[in-house]
Write a structure and sequence with these properties.
This protein has 183 residues and is α+β, with helices and mostly antiparallel strands. Helix content is 21%, strand content 38%. It has helices at 43-49, 88-96, 119-126, 168-182, and strands spanning 17-20, 23-28, 31-38, 60-63, 66-72, 75-81, 100-104, 109-115, 139-144, 147-155, 158-164. A six-stranded antiparallel sheet has the order 1-2-8-11-10-9, covered by helices on one side. Helix 3 crosses helix 4.
Length: 183
């Protein structure tokens, strides 16, 4: 019998937290993720079946336990607390049936939350995304260093970075290096 043990995207037993000057970089490991793509002609049916209003381009929506952000035409990434919704994709598929394609994404992505007063200075060194003009709830797919990622504005001094799990170490290194350059 295998004795499997879960690890974080950075390969540890617990989430990593880095404090650099006024910035805090936190590895987020408590969120389940699932992608939803409405099938052709089914967008209205998808919207009716879900417990939240689907967000438009570059936006997020939250209702109850669920948050969704727009990822492309008729496509969204859903997030929920992992302890409450470990089988998020299965839950969404049960709600949506044949109106949408639902894919488990939890272990395909990593997320780092960055907070602090030097947030905009840090991200201006990392990306061409206009972070100073982003409002809370805005999401833009762009690059961080050379990596494709979603930048999700959580608040005035808070940003989530969602990128490929296979690039977690590179993404973390870029975030830390940029934080040190503004500290």
């Amino acid at each position: 019998m295998h004795k499997l043990k879960p690890i974080t995207p950075l390969g540890a037993d617990t989430a990593r937290v880095d404090q650099i000057g006024t910035l805090t970089i936190t590895e987020v490991v408590d969120q389940a993720l699932a992608s939803v793509s409405a099938r052709e002609g089914q967008l209205d049916a998808v919207q009716k079946a879900l417990p939240l209003a689907l967000p438009g381009i570059g936006k997020t929506a939250t209702q109850g336990d669920f948050t969704a952000f727009w990822t492309g035409p008729d496509q969204w990434m859903f997030s929920a607390d992992h302890n409450q919704h470990e089988l998020l994709a299965a839950e969404l598929k049960q709600m949506l049936g044949d109106t949408a394609s639902v894919v488990e994404q939890t272990d395909g992505w990593c997320r780092f939350d960055v907070s602090g007063t030097a947030l905009c200075d840090q991200f201006e060194r990392l990306s061409n995304v206009p972070v100073r003009t982003m409002s809370s709830g805005d999401v833009i797919r762009g690059t961080v260093e050379h990596l494709g990622a979603f930048l999700w504005r959580l608040g005035d001094d808070r940003m989530a970075v969602v990128g490929p799990r296979s690039s977690a170490a590179s993404l973390h290194h870029a975030l830390v290096a940029a934080a040190r350059s503004v500290a």
